[in-house]
Amino acid sequence: GDSVTQMEGPVTLSEEAFLTINCTYTATGYPSLFWYVQYPGEGLQLLLKATKADDKGSNKGFEATYRKETTSFHLEKGSVQVSDSAVYFCAPRGEYGNKLVFGAGTILRVKS
Amino acid sequence: DAGVTQSPTHLIKTRGQQVTLRCSPKSGHDTVSWYQQALGQGPQFIFQYYEEEERQRGNFPDRFSGHQFPNYSSELNVNALLLGDSALYLCASSLIGGGTDTQYFGPGTRLTVL
User: Residue A17, Cβ neighbours under 10 Å: how many?
Assistant: First the structure.
């Protein structure tokens, strides 16, 4: 079945540091790829998405590129802020299915 | 533009009881998916409803059932509650055929089973 592997956290960074959260996936057919963010006590918010190879999703300074050859969708941000502290989930959705597949997520902590 | 709404926010039940959770999709959306998120874990897909039918189901027992109404809102029912059913239940809505069928999540219902 479809699956996703994210780097284990927590990831602790100082404010203005560069962020990378690695994500690799297995999925049927040609999946769409998503990053969601969850702040404490809240639901999931869509951060960005990409639907075909080499597409770059971007939002609020975050970016991720759909790499079909390496089945990866790594999340990056050039300069993190304390307000970026949250749990980040990478989620593929298989071409022939309707469900998002989540891993355990990566906790990000940003110190001022 | 109202987003996905869920009710109630919190719920406390005892083992063996039954519970109903409710979800209203984002305006213009016709599909509702339900996920269970245990503490410290990622969400797990329960099922998806479209045109008032269950379209796909995850690996959950028959104690978990759902319904979608003509106005696209949805309910999740869980019978014979177990301690392990304690979790955050998330509803997500999307539009079938709307490009990527991107799912937008509600704030969730926190269920505690004692």
Answer: 14
Which of B45, B51, B95 is the mutation pick for testing A, counting most A CBs within 10 A?
B45
The 10s digit of each residue's pLDDT in A15-72 is 999 999 999 999 877 889 999 999 988 899 999 999 999 999 999 999 999 999 999 9
3-state secondary structure of A16: coil
Handedness of CA B28, B36, B109, B52 (dihedral sign): positive
pLDDT for residue A7: 87
Closest by Cβ to A43, choosing from B33, B90, B100: B90
Phi and psi dihedrals of B109, rounded to 5?
A: -120, 125
H-helix segments, A10-110: none
Q: Given an 8 Å threshold on Cβ–Cβ distance, is B100 in contact with A104?
A: no
Neighbours of A15 (CB within 10 A): 13
pLDDT value at residue A97: 66
Supply the pLDDT for residue B65.
98
Q: What is the DSSP string of B84-107?
A: GG-EEEEEEEE-TTSSS---EE--
CB A95 within 8 A of CB A27: yes
Question: What is the Cα–Cα distance from B105 to B114, expressed in whole angstroms?
Answer: 27
For an interface test with A, which of B24, B32, B100 has the most A Cβ atoms less than 10 Å from its Cβ?
Answer: B100
User: Which stretches of chain B score pLDDT less than 70?
Assistant: 1, 97-100
Q: Would you give the end-to-end CA distance of chain B in angstroms?
A: 37
Q: Does B74 touch chain A (CB under 8 A)?
A: no
